[in-house]
Amino acid sequence: LGSLIPFSEFTWNINDDFRTVPESWIPARGVVQLEGQPQPDENGHIPGWIPVEQESRQYCWHGSAVNYETKVALVMKAHSEQNLLEITTVHLMELLEQTLELVGTHINGNPYGLGNKKQPVHALVSHGVLQIQNPPSLSYSDLITWFEESQEGKIEGIVWHCTNGVLIKLHRQHVGLQWPVTNPYLTARPVCINVDLSKYNCNFEPKSSFLVLAKLNGERFDHLKDIHWDNVGNNCTEGV
């Protein structure tokens, strides 16, 4: 379409060109509005948010990584120690205006080995917190080679953070590669668990992700898949 009509002459029809969003949809900060109507950016996107309702079955796995009473979330992020991952609790206020991805037992076939069907475990990962140490050059062939042959390339995708604030995302599937892959990069990194629930005045549900990870508080593993979730889950019989 862009080759037929100069971009400067093309205009979107908001009513016909975009799908209907739920009434609860909220436009993201920075979205331009004209007479109260959110307008698409230069790529034809209107980013926004849909609230994750606490009791919604549609978002039950997202909800399992958040405790609404204490207003904290389970987050997997980079530790200050190089190459070490950390699963910890983070207050929701610290996550404002961030985009996060849910990982765990019931997400995309659980490539990271978090929990199991008997003891599901889910956590959130903020986009941009896990940095690539040796990124590929920006050529198609080098990107393919990096995704296929580099240990660091065994990931779902890359987001480039440009100096002007622009974010550019490349998913493996954008270049015809499969996801998930066997033994992704995150499973090759050591991980520590920092989930201390004693500081919260709350009765966490039995077998919740919070309670399961709290049983591992202070422990460190060579890999995520080294955690024996059945043994942990057997000890989670009551709230904290």
Automatic annotation (TrEMBL):
Keyword annotations: ATP-binding, Ligase, Nucleotide-binding, RNA repair
Cofactor: Mg(2+); Mn(2+)
Catalytic activity line of the entry: ATP + (ribonucleotide)n-3'-hydroxyl + 5'-phospho-(ribonucleotide)m = (ribonucleotide)n+m + AMP + diphosphate
Keyword ATP-binding listed: yes
Catalytic activity, EC: 6.5.1.3
Nucleotide-binding in keyword set: yes
Name of the protein in its database record: RNA ligase 1
GO BP annotations listed: response to reactive oxygen species; RNA repair
InterPro entries (UniProt xref): RLIG1
Function: Functions as an RNA ligase, in vitro. The ligation reaction entails three nucleotidyl transfer steps. In the first step, the RNA ligase reacts with ATP in the absence of nucleic acid to form a covalent ligase-AMP intermediate and release pyrophosphate. In step 2, the ligase-AMP binds to the nucleic acid and transfers the adenylate to the 5'-PO4 terminus to form an adenylylated intermediate. In step 3, the RNA ligase directs the attack of the 3'-OH on the 5'-phosphoanhydride linkage, resulting in a repaired 3'-5' phosphodiester and release of AMP.
Gene source species: Callorhinchus milii
GO molecular function: ATP binding; RNA ligase (ATP) activity
